[in-house]
Amino acid sequence: MKLEEIGFYTLCDDRVKNQSASSPLHRCEMILTSRCNFKCPYCRPLRPECRGDLLFARARETLALWIDNGLRNVRFSGGEPMMYKGIYQLVKQAQKGNVQRIALSTNGSFPLHMYQRMIELGVNDFSISLDACCASVGEQMCGGIKCAWNKVVENIRWLSRLTYVTVGMVLTENNIGQVADIIRFADGLGVADIRVISAAQFNKPIEALASIGDDILNRHPILKYRVENFRSSKSVRGMCAGDCNRCHLVLDDMAVAGKWHFPCIIYLREGGGPVGEVGPTMRQQRAEWFANHDCHADPICKNNCLDVCVDFNNKARDLK
């Protein structure tokens, strides 16, 4: 599979050329709850007005608006979305709405039968955190939860046999020395891909990635993309002076928490303000934000925009 063919990645010429405030929504993410059974040290709290559980009626209404706008890919996240009471009904709604990719971002610690039920209802993309290759560091990275790492590893191994699974690896000072070993360990679990990202508090070059062999990279297009960026001294996060200063992604990409829609999930998690309230005019609001927002003048965008998003916006600038 090529990176351009992966639903939640963005480097697709067709999307760039046909993107507008009325084109199908490419990717939307909904924060269902701020609650979580883990206490990962790198996790950022949501804005106060977005904390707690999303009202179920509001979640259904938001999802319906997205589907009416041609939603192709949706991700349910948190906090821990498996703790949200209405998660099963929302997955059913997305499946009934013909959403192509229904994703769940989870810490992977819940009973396997719950995840299997998700697959039966329509989830076809799991993103599971795996920040260590041994139990001692794993428990440290999830906030000291005993036996959690072993359960997560077991679930990743089984789910990878059933559907598309990626592991997300957040790098901090606690696990940076194990990055190559964690990648090799994750590869051995049979996952479809491996997403390596520096925590916002620890955005530094990762020299150990240069040791990852082509045999592993060729199995994982997302990992390969990111490692090639590292090898060319390009960071995961941040914009350079020559990068596009407009966020084209905001036109057909959206993150929602509470009653608010935000430019993107990174902007939301780094404490940025919303574009506006969820409702029938939000696509127009986002088009106005796109036209008026200088990303280079916004420290959240300038310092935290992900490499794949920067590349997409540069491509949009150049092709348009």
What this model shows, in words?
- By secondary structure, this protein is α/β, with parallel strands linked by helices.
- The chain has a single domain (25-237, 251-279), classed as Alpha-Beta Barrel (TIM Barrel), CATH 3.20.20.
- 37% of the residues lie in helices and 14% in strands.
- It contains 13 helices and nine strands.
- It has helices at residues 13-18, 56-68, 87-96, 112-121, 135-141, 148-159, 179-188, 214-217, 221-231, 265-269, 282-292, 299-304, 307-319; strands at 27-31, 73-77, 101-106, 125-129, 164-171, 193-198, 253-257, 260-262, 276-277.
- Strands 6-5-4-3-2-1-7-8-9 form a nine-stranded mixed sheet.
- Strand 1, helix 2 and strand 2 form a beta-alpha-beta unit.
- The longest helix has 13 residues, at 56-68.
- The radius of gyration is 19 Å and the shape is globular.
- The two termini are 27 Å apart.
